[in-house]
Design a protein that fits this description.
CATH topology: Rossmann fold
CATH architecture: 3-Layer(aba) Sandwich
Largest sheet: 7 strands, mixed
Number of helices: 10
CATH superfamily: HAD superfamily/HAD-like
Radius of gyration: 18 Å
Helix content: 25-40%
Distance between the termini: 14 Å
């Protein structure tokens, strides 16, 4: 494992919400649908989507949930481009302990990192830029807000949207990323959902390792035994640190250097 995880061999694919952020905090669609600075009419339209205490109508099942969310945003024309940075800054998104250290460690060693999210590219980038105090240059495979020249939201790409149900399309959606690092033969996956493991579908590699984040605030159908069976390792808790991942990668780097 240490040989496979050496930085020169490695590709990392990670989820964002409740993986790089804490499991007990807001997620991308909470930011887009509940921020106090957004119009009250938008928040009212969005509220039923975020209420999981009652069954959603069939028209919102599966990918239709994301389609409905995007329809609401575009209908209201928000968030505007100008308002987005403050919206993210004030949202209460919190980096998971150790997440920033891990991203900086990988960046310093030139390890390709792909963030795959059912949320929103623009929120991911704004959050990381704020937390890292530098632009995030790595690719983000997610839903992207499109504004007109006046800064009004006019579309959300792609269609159909990126969801937690189609992460098996990650390789298909990011051909340039995978072509650029085809010589790297080991894949490390980070995610808080079993569906996050699907990002490895179709990726040409010799070895795959995965770290699951089993948050306290998780749907009742998330079976801890299944996490243990399917992930290489599991970190438990809404604020479980990613430092053990970086520590392991440092051991792999040291082993590669000494060999």
């Amino acid at each position: 494992m240490l040989k496979a995880l050496a930085p020169q061999n490695l590709i990392v694919i990670t989820d964002f919400d409740a993986t790089l952020t804490c499991g007990d905090g807001p997620q991308c669609h909470d930011v887009l649908g509940t921020a106090p600075s957004l119009p009250a009419s938008l928040r009212a339209d969005f509220a039923p989507l975020l209420d999981f205490s009652v069954p959603h109508p069939p028209a919102w099942h599966g990918a239709k949930w994301w389609e409905r969310a995007n329809e609401i945003l575009v209908a209201h024309g928000v968030p505007t481009r100008a308002a987005l940075p403050a919206l993210v800054r004030d949202a209460g998104l919190t980096p998971r302990p150790g997440a920033l250290r891990l991203l900086q460690w990988l960046e310093a060693r030139g390890v390709p990192v792909l963030i795959v999210s059912a949320g929103c590219t623009d929120i991911v980038r704004a959050f990381l830029e704020e937390e890292l105090d530098a632009p995030w240059s790595g690719p983000v495979s997610s839903n992207q807000l499109r504004w007109n020249e006046a800064g009004t939201l006019v579309a959300v790409d792609p269609y159909p949207p990126c969801t937690s149900l189609d992460k098996d399309r990650t390789c298909e959606r990011n051909p340039r990323f995978f072509a650029s690092c085809s010589s790297r033969r080991s894949l490390l996956i980070l995610g808080d959902s079993l569906s996050d493991l699907d990002v490895g579908t179709g990726v040409d590699r010799d070895a795959t390792y995965s770290v699951g984040l089993l948050n306290d605030l998780r749907p009742p159908w998330c079976d801890p035994d299944e996490y243990d069976a399917r992930f290489t390792a599991v970190l438990r808790g809404d604020r479980a640190s990613l430092d053990p991942v970086t520590d392991l990668l440092e051991r792999a780097e040291a082993a590669a250097t000494s060999s």
